[in-house]
Amino acid sequence: MNLNATLFAQFVVFFILAGFTMKFVWPPLMKALDERTKKIADGLAAADRGKADLAASEKRVQAELATARDEGQKRIGEAEKRAQLIIEEAKKTASEEAARIVINAKADADQQVTKAREGLRNEVATLAVKGAEQILKREVNAAAHADLLNQLKTEL
């Protein structure tokens, strides 16, 4: 065997194999590698967009929470103001009711005093008539002397 011929045949086979590989095998491999590179780049870009969206969402959430906190504090303040108004109104109503009760009690007391005075006047008139009977030793007719008794009641 001739070393040069073998070497030349190996060169020819090598170049045929290299040409076949470059023509039929290499393009699909490069296409698969390019697609894989593109998928990785798209995935990284999507991850970056996701991080940016997450950061933006967190900012929106923080803003919403701050707004909700402020609104809650505002509502608490309004509720406290309303509670104070209700308390003041209840105090006013209670004082008005107390004043009305005091006025009614005074009116009742005055009425009872007037009734007691009338009762005392009647008793004094009766006692006066009985005393006069005792003094005069005879019976005094109350119907006949009604004017006199009424005058006596008004003087007492």
TrEMBL record:
Q: Does the keyword Nucleus apply?
A: no
Q: Which Pfam families match?
A: ATP-synt_B
Predominant localisation class: membrane
State the superkingdom.
Answer: Bacteria
> How does the protein associate with the membrane?
Single-pass membrane protein
- Keyword Transport annotated: yes
Q: Where do the TM regions start and end? A: 6-26
What GO cellular component entries does it have?
endomembrane system; plasma membrane; proton-transporting ATP synthase complex
Please name the GO terms that the record assigns under molecular function: proton-transporting ATP synthase activity, rotational mechanism; proton-transporting ATPase activity, rotational mechanism
List, alphabetically, the InterPro entries matched: ATP_synth_B-like_membr_sf, ATP_synth_b/b'su_bac/chlpt, ATP_synth_F0_bsu_bac, ATP_synthase_B_chain
Subcellular localization(s) per the UniProt record:
Cell membrane; Endomembrane system
Q: Which UniProt keywords apply?
A: ATP synthesis, Cell membrane, CF(0), Hydrogen ion transport, Ion transport, Membrane, Transmembrane, Transmembrane helix, Transport
> What binding partners and quaternary form does the record give?
F-type ATPases have 2 components, F(1) - the catalytic core - and F(0) - the membrane proton channel. F(1) has five subunits: alpha(3), beta(3), gamma(1), delta(1), epsilon(1). F(0) has four main subunits: a(1), b(2) and c(10-14). The alpha and beta chains form an alternating ring which encloses part of the gamma chain. F(1) is attached to F(0) by a central stalk formed by the gamma and epsilon chains, while a peripheral stalk is formed by the delta and b chains. F-type ATPases have 2 components, F(1) - the catalytic core - and F(0) - the membrane proton channel. F(1) has five subunits: alpha(3), beta(3), gamma(1), delta(1), epsilon(1). F(0) has three main subunits: a(1), b(2) and c(10-14). The alpha and beta chains form an alternating ring which encloses part of the gamma chain. F(1) is attached to F(0) by a central stalk formed by the gamma and epsilon chains, while a peripheral stalk is formed by the delta and b chains.
Family to which this protein belongs: Belongs to the ATPase B chain family.
Q: What does this protein's UniProt record list under function?
A: F(1)F(0) ATP synthase produces ATP from ADP in the presence of a proton or sodium gradient. F-type ATPases consist of two structural domains, F(1) containing the extramembraneous catalytic core and F(0) containing the membrane proton channel, linked together by a central stalk and a peripheral stalk. During catalysis, ATP synthesis in the catalytic domain of F(1) is coupled via a rotary mechanism of the central stalk subunits to proton translocation.
Q: Which PANTHER family match?
A: ATP SYNTHASE SUBUNIT B (PTHR33445:SF1), ATP SYNTHASE SUBUNIT B', CHLOROPLASTIC (PTHR33445)
Q: What is the name of this protein? A: ATP synthase subunit b
